[in-house]
Write a structure and sequence with these properties.
There is one protein chain. By secondary structure, this protein is α/β, with parallel strands linked by helices. It has a domain of about 55 residues. About 20% of the residues lie in helices and about 15% in strands. It has a 15-stranded mixed beta sheet, with no helix packed on it. The relative contact order is 0.04. The structure holds 2-acetamido-2-deoxy-beta-D-glucopyranose (10 copies). One 2-acetamido-2-deoxy-beta-D-glucopyranose (NAG) binds next to loops. Keywords: Leucine-rich repeat, Membrane, Repeat, Signal, Transmembrane, Transmembrane helix.
Length: about 475
């Protein structure tokens, strides 16, 4: 529908150019009217109109009345316009709406814009006869509540939005029986709760936007929902019950909440999740069990979790091949296991990890070398700097000469395994030689051992006692 709107604007500009002559007899004097591919269009936009003009031709299919100063919608403004499909009333000064303005049963309006007006109160049945309506936009008004019956008869509605109002609650039955509904916009209100069961009510729901509200818990994601926008609420914990039925969920936006805890198995039901934005929350760590079910994840955003300082080693294994956008910049990392990054194999992988207090000592050498050997993987390379140790404070990780700083070169895995093998062989040989004598002295050895343990235990207890 957004596309449709844009296309219409473009086509419209072109039509104005082609048809700048008035067809006066069938057109209000304040408007310009013209035909276009079977439609009859009245353009009355941006004329400083304070009321709706009269005299529209009965075959009018579209009326542009946006960008005026209209403040009331009177009873018969659109009566008898049986062909009218598109009515644009946005960006006016509308505050008064006659209850029956759209009640004419012969009206078959499909597209109605009322956004950016001054509507504080909507008559409960004002849309009751509009079963043909597909799009209704009431964004940016002054609505404090929605009458429970307001949208009940909009059986054809696909996209409905009340963003940017002052709604504090939505009655559970508000969206009853809207079988075609795909998109609900409720962002930037004051909502503290949402209907819990609208997945059952609107069986085709695809996208819900309730960002910028006051929700403290995430309502259950409907089983058909593909996108959920929940940015900018007050959600503090995520639990699996919210995602139990979320099998179609593909994009989940949860940035700018207060999430500090994510329960194990939270995302068990979200089997299709591709994008998860958790940036700007209060997470402290990512456990192995936090995201392990997300086998299709392509993007994970963890930036601006200011306390976040640890990601456990296997946390990203579940999506090591699919993920290609990963951010944990502007957190509190001093160290991370290099294998976590090295095991992500998608060729398009881009990582953000700057603005962290990295401690570029020899424990981080593998990460430093990874950054230096694959700089193209790191989007914010210039922000990846060291806070410690002192001799590299403030330096970019790309410029740290860790090879000479950490000489002798730290033992790599392969070397350490070889070393272990040699050590074990020698130990085995020694044990073999000594074992006979050892067996003879076993009893003595046991006693000595026990005594030694006792001594250790006592001295440790002494230490603890002295600390206390
Ligand atoms: C609509 O009606 C006007 C006259 O009232 C006429 O000029 C015009 O051709 C009609 N347009 C269409 C598309 O029927
Ligand atoms: C509408 O009013 C504004 C401010 O008074 C004026 O600048 C503008 O030209 C008017 N537009 C029309 C189409 O009359
Ligand atoms: C609508 O049409 C009917 C019959 O053509 C007419 O009686 C009525 O006055 C019209 N209403 C308006 C508001 O124009
Ligand atoms: C908007 O409507 C109110 C009355 O509802 C009126 O007082 C105000 O002057 C109008 N504003 C403009 C810019 O027309
Ligand atoms: C809602 O639609 C039903 C069925 O089409 C109809 O009977 C009822 O009158 C409508 N409600 C209102 C308030 O118009
Ligand atoms: C918005 O709603 C709150 C109650 O939730 C109310 O106190 C406040 O006055 C409303 N604001 C406006 C501008 O109507
Ligand atoms: C999941 O869907 C089933 C069947 O539609 C329903 O009974 C159950 O309550 C839903 N669970 C949650 C947590 O929404
Ligand atoms: C998650 O599960 C693991 C393994 O079962 C367990 O060790 C850990 O304590 C659990 N974490 C939470 C927050 O329940
Ligand atoms: C970041 O970690 C340091 C310890 O390394 C701690 O003192 C500090 O409080 C942490 N900052 C936040 C915002 O959690
Ligand atoms: C990615 O994970 C799969 C199993 O989840 C594992 O078999 C594979 O070895 C991993 N790849 C890397 C590079 O770690």
């Amino acid at each position: 529908m957004m596309y449709l709107n844009k296309i219409k604007t473009v086509v419209f500009a072109w039509m104005v150019f082609l048809h700048s002559t008035n067809v006066a007899s069938s057109c209000p004097s304040e408007c310009r009217c013209f035909g276009f591919s079977g439609d009859w269009i009245a353009d009355c936009s941006t004329q400083n109109l304070t009321q709706i003009p009269s005299g529209f031709a009965e075959n009018t299919t579209e009326i542009f009345l946006q960008n005026n100063l209209i403040s009331t919608l009177p009873e018969n403004a659109f009566s008898n316009l049986t062909k009218l499909k598109f009515l644009y009333l946005h960006n006016n000064n509308i505050s008064e709406i006659a209850p029956a303005v759209f009640a004419d049963p012969s009206l078959t309006l499909k597209y109605l814009t009322l956004h950016d007006n001054q509507i504080r109160i909507l008559p409960g049945d004002v849309f009751a006869g509009m079963s043909d309506l597909i799009v209704l936009n009431l964004n940016n008004n002054l609505l404090n509540s929605l009458p429970p019956s307001l949208v009940r008869n909009l059986t054809g509605i696909v996209q409905i939005s009340f963003s940017g109002n002052n709604l504090s609650s939505i009655d559970d039955v508000t969206f009853d029986d809207l079988s075609k509904l795909k998109y609900i916009g409720l962002s930037n209100n004051k909502l503290r709760s949402l209907p819990q069961n609208w997945g059952n009510i609107a069986p085709d729901l695809y996208s819900i936007d309730y960002s910028g509200n006051n929700l403290e818990t995430l309502p259950p994601v409907p089983s058909t929902a593909n996108q959920i926008y929940a940015t900018g609420n007050s959600i503090s914990t995520l639990s699996s019950s919210s995602f139990a039925n979320a099998t179609e969920l593909y994009e989940m936006f949860l940035s700018l909440n207060r999430i500090s805890a994510i329960e194990n198995d939270t995302f068990l039901g979200a089997t299709s999740l591709g994008w998860l934005d958790l940036s700007g929350n209060a997470m402290e760590r990512v456990d192995d069990f936090t995201f392990d079910h997300l086998s299709k994840l392509q993007g994970l955003y963890l930036a601006y979790n200011e306390p976040l300082s640890s990601i456990s080693s296997h946390a990203f294994e579940g999506f090591n091949e699919t993920i290609y956008r990963l951010s944990f910049d502007s957190c509190n990392f001093t160290w991370i296991d290099a294998d976590i990054i090295a095991s992500l194999t998608n060729k398009q992988l881009v990582i953000w990890m700057g603005n962290n207090p990295w401690n570029c000592d020899c424990n981080l050498q593998d990460v430093v070398e990874l950054v230096q050997s694959s700089p193209s993987k790191f989007y914010d390379l210039n922000q990846i700097t060291c806070q410690n140790p002192d001799d590299v404070k403030g330096k970019k990780m790309t410029t740290v000469d860790s090879k000479s700083r950490c000489s002798p070169a730290p033992i790599t895995k392969a070397y350490s395994e070889l070393g272990l093998a040699i050590g074990l062989s020698i130990a085995a040989a020694v044990v073999f030689v000594v074992i006979v004598g050892f067996l003879i002295n076993a009893r003595t050895a046991k006693i000595i051992n026990r005594n030694r343990q006792q001594t250790e235990r006592t001295s440790r207890q002494d230490e603890v006692a002295s600390v206390l």
